[in-house]
Amino acid sequence: MDKIELENQLLVHAFDYAAIGKAIVAVDGALLKVNHSLCHLLGYQESELLKLSFREITHPDDLEIDQSKLSLLLEGKIHSFHTEKRYVHKNNDEIWALLSLTLVRSNQGDPLYFVSQIQNITDLKLAEKKVYEGEKRYQRIVEESPDAIIILRKGRCFFINEAGVGLLGASAKKDIIGKSIYEFIDHSDYGKLQNLVENKIRSESVGPIEERFVRFDGKEIDVEIKTIPTIYKGQPAIHAIVRDISERKQTQELMINSEKLTVAGQLAAGIAHEVRNPLTAIKGFLQIMESELKDQKMYFDIISSEMNRIEMILNELLVLSKPQQISKYSQGNLKDILEQIVTLLQTQTNMNSIEIITKIEPNLPLISCDENQLKQVFINFLKNSIEAMPKGGAITIEVQSKNSESLIVRIVDQGHGIPEHILKKIGTPFFTTKENGTGLGLMICNQIIEQHKGKINIESCSKGTTIEIDLPVS
Length: 474
Ligand SMILES: Nc1ncnc2c1ncn2[C@@H]1O[C@H](COP(=O)(O)OP(=O)(O)O)[C@@H](O)[C@H]1O
Ligand SMILES: [Mg+2]
Hints:
5-stranded antiparallel β-sheet, binds adenosine-5'-diphosphate, 474 residues, Beta-Lactamase, binds magnesium ion, Helix Hairpins, alpha+beta
């Protein structure tokens, strides 16, 4: 074998035995020469392939791209190109390949034929497709989740699902996307969340932790957040599940309150019993003494009226412990009830330079109520007002009919008011801000008004407090 022959043979081998598919393609697209790898890749015998043109082995959807690049090549605008395209296997399977195409020209510059290299990338494409489908599936799960889900990147909302839009009370996703998560958070809780959404160790999930969110309408809600590191659109991100737990929290609070209430009731009942017994003894002895000290009648009258009052209070404490059973309902006139209360508190208001102004609408309808209990309510409210006005001032009591079904009693004072953070707690048994307070007054009011199917609304600012009591007419 001479040198040239040897060289030719080497070239033929380099073509025939190359691990990737190779073909020499005529300018009209006919396959002039193909190697083993290409035959194997497309499932044809060499003789079969040589009868076909490149069009017949190309996936119909990918013909278009080839044509445009081919023209560029033929026009001499490019020398070669690489492209990803699909071929069709003899058994009709789709084959993904990376095609590199070069045009060989004659010495005169006329196109002679194409040299093409075809590398199988089907497995790679399948893997890519799997990732893509996985991501699509993830997006769907996120979108359809009944829990609010926010995908965060560097603390910013990158994606939010419909449930999230609802939770935050926004009108559309675009109101939220791009915003920092901190915009929705009650600022006192800032630090806790920072750890959650910017955690350095992004391989672990964090939470659930409790937070307070401020909705678009300004309403605050309690939420529970759990964050999980994830990949979203090919980039690391944080998948945050946000659950509204306001209702759960409220129920919890109610349960704690009613628990405290039971304890308060039991205490009250215990005390009432303990005090009633010695009281009976005192009353008995007083009666004996009264008959012997007839000239002191005036004192005895005062003592016995005070004793009656003590007894009444004790009975009320008992009412408190078993509120449903002992109330005595009758048709009551609010005007009379309020006037009696104002008289009763006169000494105290005079001492504190407080004037009570009553504005009672004439001809009010009667209400079905337990008079003593309602008196208790008004006394409790008025005492609070008096206690809030150490420098004196005016307390206005207004009564009007709201509609055919209810009356409104408004007690407006000029006291120091109730700060916002305290407003939430008042009415809880034993909650007081006063040195000698019991913290039971408002709780009793709430309970009694609730039994009368009424409603209490308290509004307060630094200039005073307004109590509004809504009572149904009978
Ligand atoms: N009219 C009012 N003005 C200011 N603060 C009030 C008023 N009414 C109630 N409060 C606040 O509510 C708390 C609870 O009231 P209450 O249940 O009657 O218990 P107490 O009067 O024994 O403290 C009070 O300690 C006070 O801080
Ligand atoms: Mg009070």
